[in-house]
Amino acid sequence: MTIAADNSRQGASHLYRTMRDVVQSMGDAVPGKFEITKEGIVHDMMSPGGPHEVTAAHLSRRLEKVMPDELLAHTGTPDVEDEPENILRHPDVIVIAWADLGVEGSADPRTVFAAIEIVSRSNPENDWVGKVRDYPLMGIPVYAVFDPRTGTGAVFTDIHPTPDGPRYATRKDFVYGEDVTIADWTISTEGLPLYG
């Protein structure tokens, strides 16, 4: 489900703050995950579980084995927020420095080395379309998508300007079982679970 946003700058900023208040007030009262995109509020009605959570845990652990100690492949809160762009996202995994994680509220997207999403069964276009659009707008240099529906994925890099705003210029597709490079680190995708 998406609730559309106002496009005028002042109206968009006011509407964004209102949408953020609504999303924060939902808390744990409503199942699923809420995010604010350039299109409005997106509600992924299914709470992640099973293969989704196992994939996030595997990716976090595999990345942390090859990254420097000052970085973390984090699977919890906080959200990543770019208030000037009116975007609030909650990646499944973010690669971020410990120092940049220890802030009150949302993380600054420009401190994130990479955002990783495990495609949701209930709303796959959010990961394959909306986040491919929003993450370069937020300045996140690498976006990796893992799709347990198909056992495939892609890594998006090289932000460049376009008439519609910043976009990723490079997409590298992969199949589960291959090694994949996310930012400066290469990990195996062997044994990642699929949706049943």
From TrEMBL:
Q: Which domain of life, per UniProt?
A: Bacteria
Q: Where is the Putative restriction endonuclease domain?
A: 33-159
Identify the InterPro entries for this entry.
Answer: Nuclease_put_TT1808, Restrct_endonuc-II-like, Uma2
**UniProt-listed Gene3D superfamilies:** tt1808, chain A
* Name listed for the protein in its UniProt record: Putative restriction endonuclease domain-containing protein
